[in-house]
Structures are given as structure tokens and as C-alpha cells.
Amino acid sequence: MTRTIHFTKMHGAGNDYIYINTVEEHIGNPEAAAIQWSAPHTGIGSDGLVLIGKSPVPEADFSMRIFNADGSEAMMCGNASRCIGKYLYEKGMTSATEIKLLTLSGVKVLKLHVDKDNKVESVTVDMLEPALTSDVQLAAEPDENHEIELQVEGAAFKGTFVSMGNPHFVTFVSDISSMDVAKWGVLLEHHPAFPERCNIEFAQITGQGTIRTRVWERGSGITMACGTGACATAVAAAVTGRNGREARIVMDGGTLEIAWSEADNHVYMSGPAAFAFEGEIALPQEEQEKQTSI
Prior knowledge:
The protein is α+β, with helices and mostly antiparallel strands. It contains 5 helices and 18 strands.
């Protein structure tokens, strides 16, 4: 008998994931499930898979694990964390409007903004402190302007490394509409400067406090938005003198508001979260066979 899993499809500014409540469901091989279910023509179609669970530590209320469309596990995702806040509240798993969420890059605090109909209108996430270097994620030395120049296929890209728990390389361009994100994104993702590969943001200052950004996500390719990428873009713009510490990051799927606080050095991200649809889907074949043999 084929075993199915209940899933919920959600998106934050177009960055879409499959959400599974692991309090009620069990997935033994999330890597395989992420690959199979994320496929756009033969699966549900998504940027990856997110598992929502109980927190194993008292410092957090709930936990998240996130797997990219290629099956690789990510440290966290800003857009997904906002969606988790909406999921937990609107599905009655919590009545709190402040939630502590355990991720592989630490505990993130979600502040839910609830409307008069008791629906989560938007979520602000404390993304903690950014890092401009990393012994693990970066094998290059930024210059005094916090920039690195990388060569790929005869082209030079100058950009800023920012870790929001996961690694980002933000490069500012003069005309983002003409940028071949797919071509250059995959090459930069796999550049030797990034031992764990890297998320790539192509950004253009389009007005005071407004930055147009397109994203190549490590393990997923082009996505409509990236929460940690929006944070990294805002930080990169600030440290290179291109913008102040508050920014509107306009991505393909929508706009995120980013504030890099001088008080605590934390980055705060605010934006929407939305349900798309729900359904049932079969577990990957190898997991079906494993369970049948038990």
C-alpha cells in the first residue's frame, strides 16, 4: 500500500517551498523527498522542502530543517521562516505572536503581525548578526572595502561576501535587466572561493533606499526571492557605502523590508507569507520499499 504524506505549499514573495508538519508526519529521507517533490513537472514543484518540528532544546519553541531542490540541506531560509510563523499560528499550533524558531544557524525570533481577522499579515524575523568573512565558507580575503574580485570564464565580478548563517556573494551591476543570472549564477556558486558553494545576488541601486535584486540560490537555481539574500544585499550595500542601513529589496516575487540595527547589529527582515495549496503526495519509492520490508 502506498503511503502518502500531507503537505502544504507556501511562498514568501514567490520563494516557494513544500511544508511538512513532522509532529504528525515522518519522513525518513528528506533529501530524496526534496528532489522528487520539488520537480516542476513530475512533482509538486518548489524551491525545496521545509520540515516543521518540535524544538529539541528549551531555548526555542519549534524547529525547522530546509532542503534545497537538489537535496542539499541549507542552514536556514528567511522566507521559509516567515511562512512557518504563519503556518504555526493559523493552523492553531500556537497562539503566540512571538515565536522562537530553531534553525541550523541559531534561534531566530519571529514577530507575527496579525490583522483584525486573526490572519498573519506579515512577519518580522530577527536574522541575528551578519558576518563579512568566514573561515569555513570563504577561501578569499576581502579588501578594505569588503569586496572580492572573482574571475569566471574571462569575466570579472567584484562583490561582497556576507554570511547570514548561509553564505552569500552580492555583486552590484549597472543594468540588472540584462544580467544572465542563470549563466553567471551557477559559475559563481561553484567558484573555488566558496568551499561550501554560495548563494549569489545580482543587485542594482534603483533609488534612495531601494535595491533591485535577482537571486541564484545555492542548490535551487533562480528563485523569485531569498530572505537571507535580501538581508545580505542590504548589508553589502551599507558596508560599501551604496546605501544606508535600511533598504527595500525588490525581488522578482515581491519586496522585503530590511533594517540593519546599529543598536544590536542584528538584521531585521519583514515581509509577507502566503498559503498556496495543500494535498497528499506519495513518499519517494525507496522509502516506500524500506517501510514495506520492515
